[in-house]
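name: query_chain
kind: protein
chains: 1
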Amino acid sequence: MTYNYFRLPNGIRLIHRQSQTKVAHCALMVNTGSRDEEARENGIAHLIEHMIFKGTGKRKTYHVLSRLENVGGDLNAYTTKEETCIHASFLTDHLERCLELFADIAFNATYPANELEKEKDVIIDEINSYKDTPAEEIFDEFEGQVFDKHPIGRNILGTIGHVKNFSRADIFRFIYKNYSTNEMVISLVADVPFQALIRLANKYFGVVNLWQPVTKRFAFDEYQVSNRRLERQGYLSHCTLGNIAFSQIDTQKHAMILLNNILGGPGLNSRLNLNIREKYGFCYTIESHYSAYSDTGLFVVYLGTDPKSLDKTIQLVYKELKKLTDVTLGGLQLYRAKQQLIGQLAISFESGLSETLAIARSHLLFDEVDDMQELVRKIERISATDLLDAANQVFKPDQISQLIFASNNAKT
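structure:
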């Protein structure tokens, strides 16, 4: 697996891997997300992601959406705390069509006023829909609690009040401040020679002027433990508990990834699933997540359970955390845990789109990408002591924050 790199004169970076399939996957990723918003701008990065499809200097919404879909392609976008991404999957023959479209919507979008007002209503519906789903809402509420008063803790969708008040001028102002060509990556996994990508990128993106606005992200360094309990309608009670964790650049990141996978990863044999869900039947969903940001991270356990089982389930979670801080994994346990994670990574890389997005993100952060072989080597180098050290830093009981959405109308 070989990755190829190139940088255009305006700073836009290219990363490419030649595949052997008929389907190509391409992404344009910008190192800008909701954490780059000022308080009054909360939600605008996500709004921009919606609005880039609403017309350009030469295309109306229909023509933007139809450009790839008319040839069977799939066009989409997303916004996170730290990035905004446009991506597409399509037959390889249509690469030029894709890159021309990406350049048009990224640099020539007009954000028409009538479309802006319609899209505000769409996003307000999205916010309200999300509030109807406590299993999703609690994650964002918990991030806001952990990263209190810091931009990384704000909800990506923003608030209804903010969204209603955004203007076209606000959109252009945010783009001017944050969309640096030096912080953009085009990634491609396709059966296309690298030189063809360079030629097409130069043709459609090379005409964009170098732009380097001066922006600064403020690191998070004021974590305080907090516990909250809120009442919510519904038959289940929901709980998140966790702590800040290692950043993307921390040497302990890979140990934390493995540790999280052992505790509550996607495998049905995770400790939380086996020792709580399967053993006691207390909850349908119980899982853990580790999110690494550029300068901090977050570890979270989530569970949804009958209110009568809530306290007992939380106690069992703490019991599992304590095991990982007190007991060193045996050689066979460690080997099996590594093999499971390596297998999961290999399967994820079988998805060309997943790989395309992953390498774009890595290139943005590190200017290079680990191939599958290097990732395997990093996982294999993790020792049982590394896992114990990571657990004792992140799973300290007196450093764990907690948020509960307690059911107030469950049948008893």
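note: The chain has 15 helices and eleven strands.
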